[in-house]
Amino acid sequence: MRKFLSYFILLLFPAWLFAQSEETLRIRTIRQQRENIWLQEYIRFLSIPNIAVDKNGLHRNAAFIMQMMQQRNIQRVQLLSDGNAATTPAIYGEVIVPGATQTLIFYAHYDGQPVDSSQWARGLKPFVPRLVKGSLEQGAAITAFPSGAGKYDPDWRIYARGASDDKAGIMAILNGYEAVKRAGLPLSYNIKFFFEGEEEAGSPNLGGIFDKNRELLRSDLWVICDGPVHQSGKKAILFGARGDAHVDITLYGATRPLHSGHYGNWAPNPGLMLAKLLASMKDEKGRVTIRGFYDDVIPLTEQEKKALRDMPPVGNQLKEELHFVGEEMPGVDLGEAIMLPSLNINGMQSGNTGAKASNVIPTTATAVLDLRMVPGNDYKKQQDRVINHIREQGYYITEEEPTDAERAIFSRIARVKKSGGYNAQRTPMDLPVVQNVIEAVKSTTTDKVVLIPTMGGSLPLFLFENYLKAKTITVPVANHDNNQHAENENIRIRNLWNGIETMAAIMTVLPGS
Amino acid sequence: MRKFLSYFILLLFPAWLFAQSEETLRIRTIRQQRENIWLQEYIRFLSIPNIAVDKNGLHRNAAFIMQMMQQRNIQRVQLLSDGNAATTPAIYGEVIVPGATQTLIFYAHYDGQPVDSSQWARGLKPFVPRLVKGSLEQGAAITAFPSGAGKYDPDWRIYARGASDDKAGIMAILNGYEAVKRAGLPLSYNIKFFFEGEEEAGSPNLGGIFDKNRELLRSDLWVICDGPVHQSGKKAILFGARGDAHVDITLYGATRPLHSGHYGNWAPNPGLMLAKLLASMKDEKGRVTIRGFYDDVIPLTEQEKKALRDMPPVGNQLKEELHFVGEEMPGVDLGEAIMLPSLNINGMQSGNTGAKASNVIPTTATAVLDLRMVPGNDYKKQQDRVINHIREQGYYITEEEPTDAERAIFSRIARVKKSGGYNAQRTPMDLPVVQNVIEAVKSTTTDKVVLIPTMGGSLPLFLFENYLKAKTITVPVANHDNNQHAENENIRIRNLWNGIETMAAIMTVLPGS
After folding, report:
1. Integer Cα distance of A238 and A248 in angstroms
2. Which residues of chain A neighbour B200 with C-beta distances below 8 Å?
């Protein structure tokens, strides 16, 4: 009777609820056997400092990774460089599968963001990994690492720099591969591995490394394992990223700070000028008013629009978490907002505030604007549009500190600095190899998989396209509240386990298999 | 023949060109004899540190002043206190003149602004007075103090903290008095002296000192000797000062810094909110748009309007000096601008700029607003008008850090902090005792004397009115480019000599005398 009822329910529910595959269950069994060994190895890995200023630490990380790869019988393990001794090398390895016609290359990075130990809570240290029985911010207790398998509550977290960004990616990829081998499952592709060591420094030499190792890195698709899963907690695949560029603006008043009583409202106040200038850049609905700002956007395809509609709404959850109620574009959801090019004030300053404030008219006012690009936008064109808008507000534009001669002519002077950026990148969802990956990820979960046409943040994916003509998609692992780039970085253990199953499935599952 | 020509020219020129009185020329002769002695004494005076944190230094200054007063036979020299041992005392002295029916009391202060020695140019130290052959900023050379009278070029300057603000006031008052006595000129009033020791700390105990010494301080007029003469270099008399108050504003976004890529243009940006809010406070003509802001202003009298028209225009000179071309209120001259209540951004900040900038949406944005009041304005009412304007822009107003409950209700939250202020003060120009002082100052110079109904800056003149029902006018001494409150503070020696003549004339000249 119970069995009959089960079959009946099976008929009523949509297929995806039952998509967890046989393969995934076999991978899970291996993981349950191995989790204590893997976590002990992971803790050793997280104990090695991985910040840019510590070259020795980065080299020790690279050596540790190469050892992990060799222990897993990955072939041709080697350092890849651009030929410059100062470049922190990437690490390469491969597994060639007889009869495979396609190649996937898995990417993660082993360097972490700079870190200020003093900002970490409750005496935590960035390179002394600690186990916490949940989220530290929500008051969970720090506990000792247990010994023996199966003792880890999957909602516990490990706190350390790099725990989520992006050693978690390396952990998921290498153990995903190990699980596939231990489970005796067949690989569906040739598998390559590429672990970068300069991502958090802005990948300054990645193009050079690609250039020198073009043949070795040939593939049908790069699977980028970096960043957080969807805020809903569901697995996500991202098909691109917004581009990024900056414009710094400085406006000028008198050459020395003036007494705001003796000269107030006579001498120009650059703080007020900056306020008016920035205010002119967006309307009351949060839309950028700069001429042409939205002009070049390539519209989403029908498939991408559907993906957008299918994204679980997270606005209310996030607003509760972040304690605000009004979006900048009222009524526009997060998923929709990040499909648009954006303009954001990262910082602005004029004079001093708080205890340092004094009764002066400041001499300058500065703002740093962050521009994000979507497919169709050219970042240089967007920067120029911003500058043109400043010019249209009556400003004389210069890239240098204004001279006395310029100051004697122009009542409004804006010094602008464009910092190098890059464009957005997006991989079509309907490529067969991409479809395979989507199916593979779906096979690991009873939840919907969230398909995100473009992530809000930026990655230098253009390097892959420019140097290798390669396609990329991003399959993240970390929890969204991982404090990436900040103090108290952490990974929820469940996300590591899910990541291993995801990576294993991508390596083994072909559509219909 | 030459004599005849001279008489002819005399007939052609307006009378004020020849207004330098016999008395002034006698004072000048005394000064020429005494200048070396007075400057040596002044250098000793400037060598005693006079900053608020150095109580011992302030007491040494007080003792030095008392000694100078006693050496000049000033009577009843004493310290005045509010009864609190922690208060830095004021210094009092008097000269009672048989038959005099009126009393003038001369005010200056002996404490100086805080100072950062490391910011002083070319190895100058704030309490090691040095002689410079002109303006240091314009490249003049440092030179040794000469010995012997008449060796000082009057365009040379002495650099030291307090050299202009306001030991120059004490120097001019005491030596003005000494010169009167040495010249054998009659005093027209009883003369009192009052030297404050806490002016740069905001005169926190001045009211208390007034309160305890009401009888001693009875007078017909206070002559405040502080601040710079007119920017044209001409002597000035100021009949009042604007009032001053502040409003600090903080606006809020999410409770943690968000990645400006992942959340940009979705989460609210408090920097942009602040820009829009500040921009809404002034129109394109630099006029404050806050409702009622100009409503309570008492119009200038005909005499004050005439004084304003007669003020030498200094806009072009100052704009050249300060290297800007556009006034905040286009076409409105400095003199006119400071007759209005004002609103100024002293400082604003959101996130970071420059090397510290990062790709975040800041959590807060802060501005410090400086309000100046003219007669008729009530500072509390002006502060409330600003706050009401913020409310009218849709903000919920709080004086505390907003709670999660408030954040869950209001999309716009402004935390405001009103800092204590005070109102403007203005003494009528047509009071007979004031007219006497104007005539006296005119008698010392062949230039026009600039009559300024209200100075742009603020002084707590309301204390004199509230505690003593006293009238005040301000007769400054220092050059306008004295770097008051900043590094490299200096006094031009000519201004000391002129100041001595001015003070002497005020003590001796009655209209028609």
Report:
1. 30
2. none
Interface check for A423 against chain B (CB to CB < 8 A): the answer is no
Question: For the range A69-73, what are the long-range contacts, defined as Cβ-Cβ under 8 Å and sequence gap of 24 or more?
Answer: A69/A93, A69/A174, A69/A193, A72/A174, A72/A177, A72/A178, A72/A181, A73/A181
A326 touches B at CB < 8 Å:
yes
ipTM of the complex: 0.86
Query: Per residue in B272-300, pLDDT tens?
Result: 999 999 999 999 999 999 999 999 999 99
What's the CA gap between B31 and A24, in Å, rounded? 101
**Under a CB-based contact definition with an 8 Å cutoff, are residues A237 and A437 in contact?**
yes
Model confidence pLDDT, tens digit, residues B160-193 = 999 999 999 999 999 999 999 999 999 999 999 9
Residue B345 touches chain A, beta carbons under 8 Å = yes
Give ∠ CA B449-B451-B455 in degrees, rounded to 5.
130
β-pairing, A450-452 vs A236-238, is parallel
Q: Which of A211, A245, A34, A205 is nearest to A109 (CA)?
A: A205
Q: Considering the entire predicted model, what is its pTM? A: 0.86
Residue owning tokens 């309490």:
B127
Residues 457-486 of B with CB under 8 A from A: 457-458, 485-486
What is the distance between the alpha carbons of residues B371 and B200, in angstroms, rounded to a whole number?
A: 19
Residue B488 CB coordination number (10 Å): 21
Interface of B with A in 356-395 (CB under 8 A): 356-362, 365-368, 370, 372
Whether omega for the bond prior to residue A166 falls within 30 degrees of 0, making it cis, is yes
Q: Which domains are assigned to chain A?
A: 14-241+424-508 (3.40.630.10), 243-294+337-422 (3.30.70.360)
Cα B57 to Cα A167: distance, rounded to the nearest angstrom:
60
